[in-house]
Design goal:
By secondary structure, this protein is mainly α. It has one domain (about 5-170, about 190-354). Helices cover about 75% and strands about 0% of the residues. The chain is built from 15 helices and 2 strands. A two-stranded antiparallel ribbon has the order 1-2. It is globular. About 55% of the residues are buried.
Length: about 350
């Protein structure tokens, strides 16, 4: 392992901490989430995978807004995780993607980007000064420093946190968690949980394909085995949520560009697990407000996710394909990825039949 492997791992850790705070703001406990990181590290070593898992803003935000309370959110993540494990083990994932088509999957991801932008802008009502400073600094950093997402999240979080602390803006006084007692959070099952679990599963399918392939493309010699990624990210989610932790998903990881991408990715996950187990996140949250990440969410959603996936969704096909893609994108943005995928498929096959 080289110094560049270590630096890449630390960079991704720094990228993950603000998103960990976002997860904590929705009620997910940090210590149980460490179990997910440990599973990811062991699985990458077992499979020889260079695609690590970490906190992913899209999944955290979606689970946060779909679940009415923390119990529903945990249940959604648990059942979605089990679903993904089954899809990965059986190889059904590829069949689902082929059945839906790349246009629908990409349009669905574009709709998720719109959802992220809406969440980011909603912070202007909840905490206008912190959110505005976060979005402004994120915008400037992204466009003036090489469109680097790691720089963007670091700068917007630090700048908006300084604004909050200098002007003594009350942002809740930090996260409070009980670290001494780890217990199983029994999942519940109702219509909202089923809908949420299916929405998270649909989002994960798109994210695993997109983020997994992007990270693998940075490496020298490693290929993206999406079935393996789906198995260990799903297992990490199921175990983490069973004890009250948040989702741990595929990300676009800078460790892929390091000299030893697998070792760097494993190191990153080990460091994140240690930070969570030691209970450092609530201490950090006393100085970093949850809304500090909203600038990153806006850039990730409106500037990165929407344009890239929209261009892919509308890059080929005829007028009917464009209508189906537009349906997937708008319905996802208005509801959730599962409803968007379902409605788009209905429209697609109505065209085929008639």
């Amino acid at each position: 392992m080289t110094i560049n492997d270590i630096l890449a791992a630390l960079g991704v850790v720094l990228n993950g901490i603000p998103q960990a705070l976002l997860a904590a703001s929705y009620g997910f406990a940090s210590v149980p989430t460490a179990f997910g990181f440990i599973i990811g590290a062991v699985a990458c070593l077992f499979y020889g995978s260079a695609i690590p898992i970490s906190f992913q803003a899209e999944t955290i935000a979606l689970a946060g807004i779909l679940g009415k309370d923390i119990r529903e959110r945990l249940s959604m993540i648990f059942f979605a995780g089990l679903t993904m494990v089954l899809l990965g083990l059986t190889g059904v994932l590829s069949a689902i993607v082929n059945f839906a088509g790349d246009n629908i999957i990409n349009a669905m991801m574009a709709g998720v980007g719109i959802m992220l932008a809406k969440i980011a802008l909603s912070g202007l009502k909840e905490s206008p000064v912190i959110t505005a400073s976060s979005i402004l600094s994120a915008f400037i950093t992204y466009f003036f420093f090489g469109q680097n997402l790691v720089y963007t999240i670091v700068v917007c979080v630090i700048f908006s946190s300084l604004v909050a602390n200098i002007f003594k803006i009350d942002f809740g006084g930090g996260i409070v968690e009980n670290y001494k007692k780890i217990e199983i959070k029994k999942p519940i099952l109702n219509l909202n949980v089923v809908r949420g679990a299916l929405a998270l599963a649909c989002l994960t399918i798109g994210a695993n394909i997109a983020f997994g392939n992007i990270t693998a493309s940075m490496t020298n010699g490693y290929e993206a085995n999406i079935d393996h990624l789906t198995v260990y990210s799903g297992l990490a989610d199921a175990v983490s949520s069973l004890f009250g932790g948040g989702p741990v998903e595929a990300i676009i990881s800078a460790t892929g560009a390091s000299p030893n991408p697998m070792k760097s990715g494993i190191l990153m996950m080990a460091i994140m697990a240690i930070i969570l187990i030691l209970g450092l996140l609530p201490k950090i949250s006393k100085y970093i407000p949850g809304h500090s990440v909203h600038g990153f969410l806006f850039i990730l959603g409106a500037i990165v996710t929407v344009p890239i996936n929209t261009s892919l969704a509308f890059s080929n096909g005829d007028a009917q394909t464009y209508i189906v893609s537009a349906t997937a994108m708008t319905v996802t943005a208005a509801n959730d990825p599962f409803i968007g995928l379902l409605v788009a498929l209905v429209v697609k096959y109505i065209f085929i039949l008639f």
